[in-house]
Amino acid sequence: MKVAVLDIKGKDTGRKVELSDSVYKIEPNNHAIYLDVKQYMAHQRQGTHKAKERAEIVGSTRKIKKQKGTGTARAGSIKSPVFRGGGRIFGPQPRSYKQKLNKNVKRLARKSALSLKNQEKAIMVVEDFSFEAPRTKEFITVLKSLGLEDKKALFVLGDSNNNVYLSSRNLKGSEVITNSELNTYKILNANNIVLLEGSLEGIEANLTK
Question: Is the Cβ–Cβ distance between 145 and 8 less than 8 Å?
C-alpha cells in the first residue's frame, strides 16, 4: 500500500512510502481490540482505595445501651457498621488491577486498530520535522496546515523530540508519542493518526516480530 508523504504545510512532497499490508490492511479483530483496551484502562487504576472495617475504627468499646427492654435491636459497639461513623462491611482494600495479555494478542489488536483507521482514511504520513524551541504557536500552525485544528490528532514520532512534545503539551486535542509508545487505546481515541516518516520502520518492526 503506497501513501503520499506530506510536508508540514499539508502539501504533497511528490514522494510516496510503502506501508505494509500486514500491518495496515488486515481484517480487524474486534475481540483482540477489546482485550487490549480493557487491559490499558485497568492499568490506569492506582488501586489505592481503602475503607476502614470495624476493627480499624477508633472509638469507645463500651456497650452503648442495655441489652434488653429498649424495643430496638441489641447493640454492643459504636463501631458497628449499622451506625454512622462505624466500620464498613467488605469495604474496598488496596489491590492491583493489572491484567495479563499475550504479546501476540496485543500486536494483533494494534494492527487491527491501525487497519480500522486506514479504512476510515484517517492515517496520513508527514515528513519529519522539528522546532528550534518549544512553541505551541508553531504546532498549531502545523495542525491548521494539515486540517486537524478541530480534531483529536495523534502524532507518532520515530525518536523522542522534546521540542515537538512540549509544543503540543498544552493542546487538549493533540498528543505526541514515539513509535514505542503506540497502543490500541491511543490509536482508537484519536480522530486522525499522523505518522512521521521516521516512525514507519519502527512501527512495522514492532508489529511484525
Answer: yes
> What HEC string does the chain produce?
CEEEEECCCCCEEEEEEECCHHHHCCCCCHHHHHHHHHHHHHHCCCCCCCCCCHHHCCCCCCCCCCCCCCCCCCCCCCCCCCCCCCCCCCCCCCCCCCCCCCHHHHHHHHHHHHHHHHHCCCEEEECCCCCCCCCHHHHHHHHHHCCCCCCCEEEEECCCCHHHHHHHCCCCCEEEEEHHHCCHHHHHHCCEEEEEHHHHHHHHHHHCC
Half-sphere exposure of 195 (CA within 13 A, CB side): 27
pLDDT at 209 over 90: no
Mean pLDDT of 123-147: 93
Question: Is there a single domain that holds both residue 117 and residue 141?
Answer: yes
CATH code, 137: 3.40.1370.10
Model pTM score: 0.84
Domain ranges, residue 203: 2-45+100-207
C-alpha cell at 150: 478541530
Q: Which of 120, 93, 194 is nearest to 153 (CA)?
A: 194
pLDDT value at residue 1:
84
Sign of the C-alpha dihedral, residues 88, 84, 47, 105? positive
